[in-house]
Structure formats: structure tokens, C-alpha cells
Amino acid sequence: MGNKTALVTGASDGIGLEFADILAAQGYDLVLVARREDKLNEVSEKLSRTYGINCTVMATDLSEPQAAQTLFQRTRDQHLQVDFLVNNAGLLHNGFFTELSLAEQERMITVNVLALTALSHLYASDMATRKKGHILNLASLAAWMAIPNQNVYAATKAYVLSFSQALADEMKAANSGVVVSALCPGYTATKMMDNPDQGAKLNIAPNMMMSAKDVAESGIKGCLAGQSAIVPGAANKMTAAIIRLFSKTLLTKLVGSFYRKNMG
What we know:
There is one protein chain. Helices cover 48% and strands 13% of the residues. It has 264 residues and is α/β, with parallel strands linked by helices. It has a single domain (5-262), classed as Rossmann fold (3-Layer(aba) Sandwich). It has a 7-stranded parallel sheet with strand order 3-2-1-4-5-6-7, with helices on both faces. Strand 1 (5-9), helix 1 (14-25) and strand 2 (29-34) form a beta-alpha-beta unit. The chain is globular and about 55 Å long.
């Protein structure tokens, strides 16, 4: 019997690359998805050589219409049975809502919400016919609060968390064998923390950030353990607990002030 197969979106760098590395180390064959085919080929070659697993590269822009459906059909056409779906791809934009490009914010919603929902639907339905499978959706600590100057991003992650927890309950109630988890990291040391394409830079001290590897390890471990919501790291767990002590109005005011002071 062959290896299980994991599909990872946003697999070319950051947390997605770490997800791919961890799953490859656990013996999963991989379907690597991101926009840049050249970068994916580099990752594929390295992971195949290091772990002796099979990698399939599927360069895909998930902001394009029907991208999720096309990706799903490509895996079916190649007879790839996905056992573990990692919806990691996501976009972030910082700044004042009215000053940021509307087109870019719509693109962010498409990737963070629509593509993730479509891929979850397609692969959850497929997994349920086999009575087994895992889906890990990348939310954020931002999902627990409203964040001025990052409002659309935070709202998309709130959707991911709410959607994933509800879907996890549905799958469990139906005895589908499909486990659904939302991973909610805080500040993570990836290019998202300093990317000129996403608006203003958020200046965060390095000691406030987790490594992408630690975040990915927590996510895989938590999903395999059946957790519906995973908050990695002691500091993030403490922050999530503290958030619940404040009224949403006061918390939004405090967070908005912090973000505006720390945006470059």
C-alpha cells in the first residue's frame, strides 16, 4: 500500500513550506500548490531527495475564478487521493481600509475565504466517501478580535475559524471520519511581516514572533489529535485567554491604537 498524500497550498515558503517538510518527514507524498512554479519545483526536488517521497507540483493562483475546482479536478485526473488537506494559502493587507486597493482586498477575500471554502467542500466530500481524512485551515489569532487597519484580513480569519469549528462539528456528528481543524498562530517570522506588496509594514519585535516551523508543527500535531481549534505557543494561548476578558469595543480601540503606532 502506498503512502498517504497531503495537499498543501501556499507551499513555496513560510508556514506552508514547513507544513510540507513536516508531512514529508512523516511519509506523506505531497501535492504542492502555490503561484510560482519555479519555486515549487525547487521545493519538490529538495523534499523528494531528502525524504524519498513523491511530489506533484500544481502551480495555481487561487484568486482566479474556479481555481479551487480546477485544482481538485487536476488531482482527480492524476488519480491523486488527498488524505490531508492543508489550506495554508492566504493574503494580508495592512493600512487604512479606504486607502488600500479595493481590487487587492477583494482578491484577499477570494483566497482567504472563497478558495478555502471551496477546497474544503470538495475534499471533505471526497474524504467522507472513504470515511477518513484531515483538513487543516490556517486561521490566525486575529480571528479572535476586530483589528483596525487590518480589518478585512482579520474578518477573513474570523470566518476561517468559525467555519472550521462548525464544519468540524458537522463531520464528527455525521461519523464521517473527517477531522477539521483551524490553526490560529500569532505573529510568525515569515515574509508576511515585511512585504511591500501588502501595504504598510507592521513593526513587531522578533521576540514576539514564533518560528514558522514551530507553528506548523503545532498545527499538524493538533489536527492529527483531533483538535478543532489550535493556538500554538504559550504566549499566544495567554493572549487568546486575555482577549476574552475585554469587551469587543474596548479591545478594538486598544488594538487599533497599537497597530497604528507600529505600522511603518
